[in-house]
Please model this.
Amino acid sequence: DAGVTQSPTHLIKTRGQQVTLRCSPKSGHDTVSWYQQALGQGPQFIFQYYEEEERQRGNFPDRFSGHQFPNYSSELNVNALLLGDSALYLCASSFGTLTLNTEAFFGQGTRLTVV
Amino acid sequence: AQTVTQSQPEMSVQEAETVTLSCTYDTSESDYYLFWYKQPPSRQMILVIRQEAYKQQNATENRFSVNFQKAAKSFSLKISDSQLGDAAMYFCAYKNRGSQGNLIFGKGTKLSVKP
Model:
């Protein structure tokens, strides 16, 4: 089992550009959540996808958007990049969205640097 | 809104000794989970231990145990017989049904283990 895989591992973009990050969930998982972890901080929830729909969203502007594909993989898109978007972006997968007793498995993240 | 506070930015322990990491949280919910995640330099979040709020018995996983004080909203992690591989960032996290299962993290505690 490959676990949660994210690509790319590192990325450098220029302010104003757009970026797409990708996540493949752990086998058997159907829910993907995205988190932003700024340097020295804990992860902050961006949004969650289940059944190809955004089910919940954190306090992030609509420059942050996403998508989930029929195979449960997911993309995070960020438009009009700002310097403050520089962070580690973590993907977490789980089975089901409303079950409290659901363990989330995390990928190794994508380190995004905006210059 | 739920919040998670980790008041110790850094902690240090001698190999083979015991260390306790602190976490407090604020919620008005009664149905929730608490977690401790470990994030080594590899960046991948690894679940260490979790506690169901309605269970009075403290969770234990090998060398890791928690002290869950529901009335005080306190959730500390005790690591016994510390090993060099325990060195990492440790994050306390909260999840309730109202958040549709998404995690709210503290800012983390950096644990160093001295040989």
Notes: Chain B has a mean pLDDT of 93. The first strand of chain B starts at residue 3 and ends at 5. The two ends of chain B are 41 Å apart (CA to CA).
